[in-house]
Amino acid sequence: MDAHLLNQVNWDERAELHGQDSYYDIAGFLSGASSLREAELILAGEVAGRDLLHLQCHIGLDTLSWARLGAVVTGLDFSGVAVRRARALADQARLPATFVQSDVRDLPAGLREGFDLVVATYGVFTWIDDLGAWARSAAAALRAGGRLVVVDIHPLAQMIDQRDPLIVDSPYADAGPQIVQTTTSYADATKRLENQHTVQWSHSVGEIVSAVAAAGLRIDVLEEHLSTDHNDRPSVLTQDGDGRWRLRVWDYDLPVLVSLAATRA
Ligand SMILES: C[S@@+](CC[C@H](N)C(=O)[O-])C[C@H]1O[C@@H](n2cnc3c(N)ncnc32)[C@H](O)[C@@H]1O
Questions:
Q1: Among 48, 148, 230, 241, which one is least packed by beta carbons within 10 Å?
Q2: What is the average pLDDT score of the chain?
Q3: Residue 178 C-alpha to ligand 1 middle, in angstroms?
Q4: Nearby residues of 23 by Cβ (< 8 Å), 6 or more positions away
């Protein structure tokens, strides 16, 4: 089976499951909570009235959180189940939003040059074989002067399966497709997945930045974060007295997130 088709089947199953867990807190969202985190909020700045495209939007919680801040939002995902659930959530929350089912590597013509902001966060590049195609889609969606904002798991953190004792189970940079088996989803360890295999790709920070630059965008900010406000990886991150989560190996903090902002001239 084609790798992206295999992944799509896995994501359809996860999109059906997600939201019955505390990771995707739909009840909290419906009563007014935002699912957005500090890294993307800082980079995006003021979004009210701006046309925002959220790539790989999953079940739409973040997309709709941007809508609550006044952005005019479109979410894109290749999972038909995710798009259906995102549309239902928009109706439930009474928030205006458009959701489009599409492979991010092949931007629909109707979305070209339509956006002031393109955003993608947390679990972006590991699903993408061709970073160049991804970056060209993001660039093509932006109007002149528009901005791409990305926050993703840092590729070094992505390599680490367990912190103590240290287990490293994937490469740092692109080494071709890696077949990954996961018995449960990150959002809910209690439910076994039927479709347990996916294909994922490693991409170094250099590869990510070079792809964005090659798509014609000017890199404004590149940050490698040594702490985060959110625990995405319980087997890897530890919480310090300041409430923040870090990836400490021996006495040193490794980067947990990478973020970038880039502008279309
Ligand atoms: C880890 S989730 C993104 C998380 C998102 N920030 C959230 O928390 O809701 C990854 C998403 O990427 C989508 N995806 C993976 N490969 C894709 C592709 N080639 N085109 C479009 N969407 C894709 C999946 O369906 C999934 O919804």
A1: 241
A2: 95
A3: 17
A4: 186, 187, 188
